[in-house]
Fold this protein.
Amino acid sequence: MVLIIAVVSICNGKYSISVNDIFNIITNNSEVSSLTKNVFFTLRLPRTFMAIISGVALGMAGCVYQIIFKNPLASPDIIGIAGGANLGAAISIVAFSSSAMAAITTGSFWGGLLAVLGVMAMVKATHSHSTATYVLAGIVINAMSKALIMTLKYFADSENELAAIEYWEMGSFGNITSSKLLSILPFFLVGLIGLILLRRQIELMSMSDNECKALGVRIRPIRISILVLSTLMVSSVVSVTGLVSFAGLIAPHIARLILKRNNATTMMLSGVVGSFVVLSADVLARTIYSAELPISILTTVIGVPLLVYFMVTAKKDRF
Amino acid sequence: MSFFEIKDLHVSYGSNEIVKGVSFAIEQGQFCALLGLNGSGKTTILHAICGFIPMTGSVVVDDQDCTRLNEKKRAQMVSFIAQVCGLQGGRSVLDAVLMGFNPRIGVLSFPGDKEKEISRQALREIGCADWEDRDFGTLSQGQKQLVIIARCIVQNSPVMLMDEPDSALDFVNKHVVMEKISNVIKERNKGGLITLHDPNFAMEYCDKLFLLKDGLLASSIDMHNTDETEIKKKMSIIYGDIDIINHNNHYLMLRK
């Protein structure tokens, strides 16, 4: 399913590429024009790949957070990644320029990472390592980020900077290039591989802290590792795409409703569902209207009916 | 030195001292109960031994001081069954049992075929062999506790701690669970310590009873070498005006 949408994503846009063209490019056939090749390699392929890895990052991280915080409403926003990344991007836009893409990417990446480090510092200061403390610290960081973003918006130039901050918050794959993709790929891969390797520990963390300890889970180092890895994954993609809402919340629910399981396999499927939702949203974002629509509108529009469909059809088997 | 020994255990919540210097010892193959009224410190003692809450004193298992061990190493020495199992559904019974191997395999490792076979053997041992593919969430509370006992079997710690594992069970299931726990402790030569609200179950299944009152060990009863008059005298310390009836060497406590 994701592969089919990926092909549709590569074909569609202002400059159309046929399936034959894709086949010829892959087989290195000389019949394809250099313009088509150029569009394929510099625009469509990075954009499609970015949409896929964004969905994987948000879906998997959402599932991990829902498991380790024992909260079905948890998403990558819960420990302040989104708030921090948003603040980082807003600072870069106001401090440098609304068109300084490298600065915005760097700012949002470090903003997300610093927000989670702030959460961990706050948890350490309270001497309580319960999941509730992490969630409360996340709420504090998110609230502080929002207050600072509002201040920045208030003082921002309404023509350029304010519009750029608002646009970043809605997310877009319109500016993805292969260099941007390659710059964040190592961080994404470290997070992804780390979480896959830790999947058994993540599954164990679905139990209470006491039960985890009784089964020999090294709660503190494991929880910190999981948070750092998932933050790396989410921050890396959000830094170049802007905020992509809803995908991280609904992908795990859809995966659970499909598998009727809540284990490591659900985490993997959440990534696949996330990539399906984000990729489909990106295809629609650039095809349903003459101008490209922000991605967050479409992820919500696609995600809600999908979730409702699975809720209705899986009603009887739900655990 | 005994196989499992608690020495001068103190636990406080803020300035409120809950456990005020408790010491006792348990031998291999011995199934013991901690009895006491609400707030006497039974659960607190188990939580302190497991490392869930800060404590002072020593917890020695097989000549090793557990208070110095991290979660993983401590779980190799001590397993724990909670009042109500917090493990959610969405995983098979076999997967739930396999979690018991966590203290013995690497953080990034996974249980293999050998571990799966040991888990199936543990499920057979407690009479739940047919459930391995069932969703853990679809089991009744009694069935869940049996699966958790199987998880304790594969965890293979020399000491088993249980905090009122029968609290959510009906009369028949209480006996089923207590019998299985007792069998596992005897057959596998473990040291078992359980907290119970019903002294009748403790007198029926346990070898030794530790009686707690206001955070102190008020007395202990060796069920194999104590007559009903002595049992009554000691039980009265915490339960007040009671009577002990001997029915074919099965003791029953009644309130007068």
